[in-house]
Structure formats: structure tokens, C-alpha cells
Design goal:
CATH architecture: 2-Layer Sandwich
Number of domains: 1
Number of helices: 2
Order of helices and strands: EHEHE
Number of strands: 3
Largest sheet: 3 strands, antiparallel
Oligomer: single chain
CATH topology: Ribosomal Protein L30, Chain: A
Structural class: alpha+beta
Radius of gyration: 11 Å
Length: 61
């Protein structure tokens, strides 16, 4: 298993978004605007990042 991580920052608000998109942000551990978290680079996390990519800034660590 790889130790790669993604640094994910929420740069757009979740208010008024689709329920699924809010759930993806919560699933990644993002709570508020400009909140940054590091998540392990797994297919599940990648899927959530891809789904709400328009709301995020992503960096590989």
C-alpha cells in the first residue's frame, strides 16, 4: 500500500450544493471554507475529490 497523501483545501462553500457533494466534502473531513486536510491517496478518496473538484484545491504530498 502506498503512503501517498493528498492535501485537500475547500475553496468554495458547500452551502446550496447538492446533498451528495456536501457528503463528499464531509467524507474528506472538510468542515469549512479554507480548511485543509491530508487524506491518503486511495481510489475512494480520489473519487470524492474528482466529484467535487470544482470546490477544492488539491496538492500531492
Amino acid at each position: 500500500m502506498s503512503d501517498k497523501k493528498l492535501k485537500v483545501t475547500l475553496v468554495r462553500s458547500t452551502s446550496g450544493r447538492l446533498k451528495n457533494h456536501k457528503a463528499c466534502a464531509a467524507g474528506l473531513g472538510l468542515r469549512r471554507m479554507h480548511h485543509t486536510v491530508e487524506v491518503i491517496d486511495t481510489p475512494e478518496n480520489r473519487g470524492m475529490v474528482n466529484k467535487i473538484s470544482y470546490m477544492l484545491r488539491v496538492e500531492e504530498v
